[in-house]
TrEMBL record:
Residues annotated for Zn(2+) binding in this entry: 40, 42, 97, 100
The name this protein goes by in its record: Carbonic anhydrase
InterPro entries hit by this protein: Carbonic_anhydrase, Carbonic_anhydrase_sf
Cofactors: Zn(2+)
Organism lineage: Eukaryota, Fungi, Dikarya, Ascomycota, Pezizomycotina
Alphabetic keyword roster: Metal-binding, Zinc
Organism of derivation: Recurvomyces mirabilis
Note accompanying the cofactor annotation: Binds 1 zinc ion per subunit.
Family assignment from sequence similarity: Belongs to the beta-class carbonic anhydrase family.
Listed PANTHER family: CARBON DISULFIDE HYDROLASE, CARBONIC ANHYDRASE
Gene Ontology MF annotations: carbonate dehydratase activity; zinc ion binding
TM annotation in the entry: none
Length: 176
């Protein structure tokens, strides 16, 4: 995608502004525990449409919907500031999907592509990177659920659920 295409996409904001009715101030958020949905950045995994979500849940998207250090950082921040510090994080849903790019390509492929762009002295560093590649969707969800539950900086008793989103049928199924 080129910069020109991004500028063209940004023009969609003109239509949004015409029907925008304003937003609540951060200080006016309800005093309730927050909900976070951690999912993949793949456009086929659009959880707002998939679950027909109302305003409210925080959506974290990254490659594979993985519980990376940055995803955990965002969860820690929300847990600390929700309702001006009067509430916390109550639940997290981890949603991975079928036919994910991280299943189809994995770490080795990503490393080789990165090396094509990076100076040679960085190749060893690239080899040590984990980009979250996986082969088993259900196992990857369970792994990320365990990572979130084990985070010492998130609330004790945090509920963490996992779901598989089928990219071809649109259906989500809970992982137990």
């Amino acid at each position: 995608m080129s910069a020109a295409m991004l500028r063209e996409l940004a023009k969609g904001n003109d239509e949004h502004v015409k029907s925008f009715s304003g937003s609540i101030k951060f200080s006016d958020f309800p005093k309730q525990d927050a909900v976070i949905i951690l999912t993949c950045m793949d456009p086929r995994s659009n959880i707002i449409d998939t679950w027909n979500l109302p305003f409210g849940p925080a959506i974290l998207r990254n490659a594979g919907g993985r519980a990376t250090p940055d995803a955990l950082r965002s969860m820690q921040v929300l847990a600390s500031i929700m309702a001006n510090g009067q509430s916390t994080l109550g639940a997290v849903a981890v949603i991975h999907h079928t036919d994910c790019g991280l299943v189809n390509f994995g770490n080795d492929f990503i490393h080789e592509r990165m090396k094509m762009n990076a100076p040679e002295h960085l190749h060893k560093q690239i080899d040590g990177m984990d980009h979250g590649g996986f082969t088993d969707v259900e196992a990857s969800i369970k792994e990320d659920m365990a990572i979130i539950k084990a985070d010492s900086f998130l609330p004790k008793g945090l509920e963490v659920l996992g779901f598989i989103h089928d990219s071809f049928t649109g259906k989500t199924t809970e992982v137990v």
